[in-house]
Amino acid sequence: MQRFSAWSLLKQAFGSHGGWQPQWRRATPKPAYDAIVVGGGGHGLGTAYYLAAEHGLRNIALLEKSWIGGGNTGRNTTILRSNYLFDESARLYDHSLKMWRDLSQVLNYNVMYSPRGVLMLAHSVHDVQVLKRHIHANRCNGVDNEWLSPAEAKAFCPPLNIERNIRYPVMGGALQRRGGTARHDAVAWGYARAADALGVDIIENCEVTGIRRDAGGAIQGVETSLGYIASRKVGVVAAGNSSVVMGMAGVRLPLESFPLQALVSEPVKPVMPCVVMSNSIHAYVSQSDKGELVIGAGTDAYTSYTQRGALHVNMHTLAAICELFPAFRRMRMLRNWGGIVDVSPDRSPIIAKTAVPGLYVNCGWGTGGFKATPGSAHLFAWTMAHDEPHPINAPFTIERFREGLLIDEAAAAAVAH
Ligand SMILES: Cc1cc2nc3c(=O)[nH]c(=O)nc-3n(C[C@H](O)[C@H](O)[C@H](O)COP(=O)(O)OP(=O)(O)OC[C@H]3O[C@@H](n4cnc5c(N)ncnc54)[C@H](O)[C@@H]3O)c2cc1C
After folding, report:
1. Which of 32, 42, 110, 354 is the 20 to 30 A CA-CA neighbour of 80?
2. 3-state secondary structure of 265
3. Is the pTM of the predicted complex or chain greater than 0.85?
4. Domains in the chain, please, with CATH?
5. In the chain, helix, strand, coil percent, each to 5?
6. Does residue 238 have its Cβ closer than 6 Å to ligand 1?
7. What pLDDT shows up at residue 280?
8. What sign has the CA pseudo-torsion 368, 374, 375, 376?
9. Which pLDDT score is estimated for 410?
10. What is the pLDDT of residue 414?
11. Among the atoms of ligand 1, which is closest to the Cα of residue 339?
12. Which pLDDT value is given to residue 30?
């Protein structure tokens, strides 16, 4: 791997940057691998990287049906935070938030992690109670989160409208200062480059179309659009398509897939110093380094596999954002898009081995898995390598939906997100 450094950048600058190698090889599939990861999003690429970097596996394939990062990894609004209510979630998401801090150094790739603070707004007495409950629970778990009055929220985020007579009046907010953003494409590219350097075959345009099991039921390999590939260890990290892929092995998942949308404005000078989220109206906004306002909307009300969504969802979000930030009213929206999110009944993920020997699944991240990318990949690689869950992801099983041991972040947030 050609390393990035001030010296290598300077050297390449003198050669008009013509000397850079491709960031990863264009691999063709071998007949068999020690482990296969299905899905080339951040979670899948990270899993392949940690399998190679921390568990000594070298003969690994990463299979992606289109281009890496073309799924939700490249479509999200890049918000990072760890202020979830339950102890299990706090351990999982904070494991990840801590890994973001030095991810650029670990991968030798700038993922543009920016801990600019995430402010979650309260618009009703109920919201205030819910967010304050989170703050207390987070502090018990060693996770930073603090309450801001409307005036303090305005001081932290000057464009915010705290007038009392608006449709969604701001009654305060919960601020996680360590929260922020990272560049989502860079996360996929950084993991791909580092995994490739350790010998992982990253195979794009390779769709998994079937999963073969032997007479005893164990995993034998996968059928793909490029032919059959054998492996006794297969990890599925296919986000919105998880239930489709797992269905190929005869495993039913308690997931529903919905379109979730985002949009960006025309670029403007720096105006938004932090990330602001409103769970009640499911609108969130931050500003990218290019200057665009990055705006996230809610999920459509019905299930679908289209990577776009209904216009009225965006209109509702924009109406709320224009009230919260009157200064943005005259801005033009540049483009919008959607991704397919896999939503579990308790809005917590599944990171687990399955009842099928050799088959593992990492899914159910719904609308909020980008923030968990390094931690999730790290723990899933551990689970695949050891054939048992790491203590942090041990509660995130498929069986919890049968046994009733839910990690109910949906009820905790008190909104249908
Ligand atoms: C609009 C939007 C906004 C969001 N905002 C945020 C946010 O601000 N913060 C946050 O934390 N999260 C956010 N999320 C959620 C987050 O993007 C996802 O939870 C996360 O990116 C999932 O990562 P992944 O690597 O599992 O999935 P993906 O990046 O979707 O990767 C899965 C890959 O599997 C591939 N695949 C599927 N089927 C097959 C097959 N049969 N064979 C081979 N490959 C296959 C897909 O092509 C895809 O590339 C948002 C999502 C969307 C859509």
Report:
1. 354
2. strand
3. yes
4. 30-78+184-254+346-413 (3.50.50.60), 118-177+256-343 (3.30.9.10)
5. 30, 25, 45
6. yes
7. 85
8. positive
9. 85
10. 61
11. 53
12. 98
The single residue listed with the structure tokens 């073969």 is 212
**Protein residue with its CA nearest to atom 32 in ligand 1:** 238
Res. 188 pLDDT band, cuts 50 70 90: very high
Task: Measure 229 CA to ligand 1 centroid, in angstroms.
Answer: 24
Half-sphere exposure of residue 44: CA atoms within 13 angstroms, side-chain side:
33
Nearest ligand 1 atom, CA 238: 34
β-pair partners for 37:
62, 235
- Does residue 189 line the site of ligand 1, with CB under 6 A? no
Task: Return the half-sphere exposure (C-beta side, CA atoms, 13 A cut-off) of residue 285.
Answer: 26
Rounded CA gap, 387 and 376, in Å?
16
Is 61 touching ligand 1 by the criterion CB < 6 Å?
no
- In 3D, which of 48, 50, 26 has the Cα closest to residue 36? 48
Q: What is the arithmetic mean of pLDDT over 348-367? A: 97
Q: Is any atom of ligand 1 closer than 6 Å to the C-beta of 351?
A: no
